[in-house]
Amino acid sequence: MTIALYRLDLYIPKDNRRPCPVVAFVTGGAWIIGYKAWGALLGRRLAERGILVACIDYRNFPQGTISDMVSDASQGISFVCNNIASYGGDPNQIYLMGQSAGAHISACALMEQAVKESSGQPISWSVTQINAYFGLSGGYNIHNLVDHFHQRGLNRSIFLSIMEGEESLSRYSPEIVVKESSARTIALLPRIFLMHGTDDYSIPSSSSRTFVDVLQQAGAQATLLLYEGKTHTDIFIQDPLRGGRDPLVEDVFSVIYADDATCRNAASAPTPRRLVFEWQLQLARWISPF
């Protein structure tokens, strides 16, 4: 079942007789074309396995810049944390996930919240309400990506406008924020899983590898999951369209249900059917700018 609310869509499992684990998802879109419906495939796949998914919307450039996007995502996370029980979600099993630009935005929101919370500032949701963070195909040090994006077609001046100027790049680079954070801030962070395809040419997998290293050196619980031969969109779009069990859903599923054998067995679902022909996926992969 799908429910559209202001600024987010909910994908609710058919069997919600008991409170469901929840994934708050922030979609990608190069900070320019992001839209909550991009998470439909993921939402449906996880809902089939007993997980409630909230796909959070946010303003795109030029309607907003990075601070607006992070604020919108944080408001969506706050709504999920404080209201999801009314929709059958378990408020004690909330997971945060972002893909591509959404991985960057949600990581910024998570770090910003941890900094606020550790310094005693007012908050509307707590980092401790998040059981784990999943970052899919994200970039976490924006300094290192300006030239890369320019070469890929995202003009340097436009990207710097999105990021509110060169002076803001460190503030919106979660990797740098982690390096500059106190032990108290790091201690608040949930488990972090960074997921990346090794053939991703939109955002290199080294972005996730480096961020995991920085997190681990800071004392955070961080794990790197690499998908051999997968591109920026394979594990998020093409694999779900192929049907069958796809690696991303299985990895997310194994983390969420790691300690709950009853739920793990109850949430088994028929193998998803193929939605498009393979030649169509190969053609899309060949012409896709991502």
TrEMBL record:
Its EC number is 3.1.1.n2. It is a multi-pass membrane protein. GO terms for molecular function: hydrolase activity. Residues 8-213 form the BD-FAE-like domain. Signal peptide: none annotated. Gene3D superfamilies: alpha/beta hydrolase. Keywords: Endoplasmic reticulum, Golgi apparatus, Hydrolase, Membrane, Transmembrane, Transmembrane helix. It is found in: Endoplasmic reticulum membrane; Golgi apparatus membrane. Its main location: endoplasmic reticulum. One of its GO terms (cellular component) is Golgi membrane. It catalyses: [protein]-C-terminal S-[(2E,6E)-farnesyl]-L-cysteine methyl ester + H2O = [protein]-C-terminal S-[(2E,6E)-farnesyl]-L-cysteine + methanol + H(+). It comes from the Eukaryota. SUPFAM superfamilies: alpha/beta-Hydrolases. InterPro entries: AB_hydrolase_fold (IPR029058), BD-FAE-like_dom (IPR049492), GDXG_lipolytic_enzyme (IPR050300). Catalyzes the demethylation of isoprenylcysteine methylesters. Belongs to the AB hydrolase superfamily. Isoprenylcysteine methylesterase family. This is protein-S-isoprenylcysteine alpha-carbonyl methylesterase. It comes from Triticum urartu (Red wild einkorn).
